[in-house]
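Hi R.,

Here are the chain sequences for the assembly we discussed:
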Amino acid sequence: MEQKHLKIAVIAGDGIGPEVLAEGVKALETVARLDGSFTFDFTYFPWGCEYYLKTGEMMPPDGIDTLRDFDAIYLGAVGYPGVPDHISLRDLLLRIRHDFDEYVNLRPVKLLKGAPCPLSGVREGDIDMVFIRENSEGEYTGAGSWLYEGTPREVVIQDSVFSRFGCERIMRYAYEMAKREHKTLTSISKGNALNYSMVFWDKIFAEVGREYPEVETHSYLVDAASMFMVKDPKRYQIVVCSNLFGDILTDLGAAISGGMGLAAGANLNPERKYPSMFEPIHGSAPDIAGQGKANPLASIWSASQMLDFFGQKAWGSRLLQIIEEMLVERKVLTPDMGGTATTKEVGDEVVRKLTEN
Ligand code: NAD
Ligand code: IPM
Ligand code: MN
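And here is the predicted structure of the full complex:
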């Protein structure tokens, strides 16, 4: 059988990004070596805040063109004190999500066995949801204006954009998943206050839903939805929400399912016209950067999502199973999970488990 060569662009980025990504790359390399039917060809790009401080840009002007021919992008984290966040994130991470039309941000919120959970009375299986976050427009469009800057009449306008095209495609993606997996679908909204964007969102959710009569649906206002995430998380299975709501609720999701060190995400261009991007949902964690304390399991879970995306579902599941085993054994974990191991030791343990027997 011919060996498949998968070209991966690695943007390790800032802070703990390079630390955690190194462990994910090790896991992926090990999987490819064990499997034999495919290889990973990693190309590293030094883009990020340090690059910005040297060049004045987060990536070169032809950066997007350079990435276009890769099969996927594996990203660590972007943002560091010293470079304004709205520049570092908009010019690199958000630019890639946007330019490659990665309109699905798929974030599992699943309490693995052994993972710490701050909620009382939550049993195994009670937290098992998938967030489908709209990732191409909404509150993140970046349109607006800053008028009369620096004068007493100063005014800023931040526009949200909800297009029929954008809403329909994200909802259809979510309904398809709910139908395929026989799960309920919950839409998160705020139609009582956001009288254009969220009224429209609700309307499209209902409209697309007519094509999926077999899918049980719920719709919650985002404030109550946040409360239910904490008080009764088992009511959620597949969740579809706008860009900003999804950003906030998935950090809350991380908090109830083991923490930022375990929260993974995939930015998908489902049509595969452009590369998709896999990244932990946490940031560069300047408070622990350079100390070997960062938990690489979120990055490794994102690597598992990448394997799923490439059709290597058995390997994707194996990686997730190893993460769960390690949480249960409690022998090799970073401090955020109550352990004393370093980032590298956790990555080494994943490799050891992959290669044993
Ligand atoms: P953060 O996610 O970096 O950190 C929040 C808290 O979680 C910190 O206490 C941190 O130590 C902890 N944490 C995060 N990841 C961890 C890990 N793998 N292991 C152990 N602990 C972990 O969020 P922040 O502090 O708000 O943001 C820091 C910078 O990162 C900012 O510049 C922000 O804009 C950027 N950011 C980038 C991304 C991204 O690249 N995807 C995501 C979020 C924030
Ligand atoms: C995330 C991050 C990004 C977002 C930031 C860094 C722009 O918080 O991926 O959750 O808001 O999408
Ligand atoms: Mn976020």
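Residues 89, 93-94, 247, 281, 283 surround 3-isopropylmalic acid (ligand 2) (CB under 6 Å). The chain has a mean pLDDT of 97.

Let me know if anything looks off.

Best,
T.
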